[in-house]
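Bug #77: duplicate submission created two jobs. Keeping one. Sequence:
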Amino acid sequence: ELPLLSVFLLLILTEIMPKESVTSLKQQNQDLKDKVDALSKEITQLKEKVRVDSAIAFGAEAAATSGNSIDNASNDETVSRSLQYLSDEYDDLSASNSGVVDQLKALSRGLNKLSAEVTRVGNAIDEVEEYSYQFNVKIIGLPEKSSETAAETSALCVKLFQEMGAEVFLSDIDIAHRVPSRQQNGAPKPVICKFVRRLAKASVMETRQSASQVNLSNIGLSADSVLDRVRIFDHLTPKKQHLFFEAKRFKEQNQYRFCWAKNSTIYLRKSEGSRPIKITDFGSLQRLVSDT
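Kept job's structure:
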């Protein structure tokens, strides 16, 4: 559970920050993360180059020393000067490389801190988005009127919820509207219904199994409409939706019987009597694979 102050701040942010702003912030944060990763790779490559240059210089000095150790006496002074020159050059290169390595290490530490901050900001953005989504449900298969307005969609949702047995009134709904569907098969566009209080949403979720059994005429739909395909789900953030998709795929591949989402949290269960396993991130799925 989030601390009370954090919840208050998140609530304010979700009210003043439109969805487009959250999406833009996420993209900017991801762009910054990509740049940090690219810089980190460049620093690693520079470190390797410094290491190789040092090894080459050390090899050159060693070769010069061994190659001239048996020269005649007349060349002793020349050889000595040459060796001293190589030694001085090697010392200078070593000192220079040592300074470069120290600077690269400092840059790496700075980048690590920046990367951690980028991750922290990304998590904060996810929390804002997720907190906002906790007030939403997604309705699939609800018949759609021609040129349906948000007000008409909201009224239709209230009638549906009340016929299901949920204690919901129009004042409990902030807005309900249709959203584009990924599948262009002529089916009604999905509805996103945003509540002003989570108790109203909870009442809907508790009675959602009866959505397909509602009397059409009682909610103002024509007799030729079909409700048997109506389904009501938690509205998950894109990140959670992706995780949910992977969890369902994991369920099929690893003989788990149940996979579901409740209050924006994803669960897996191996069998009827086994305990639910909370899936918080992709690492949760990887750990389950390792444990099997």
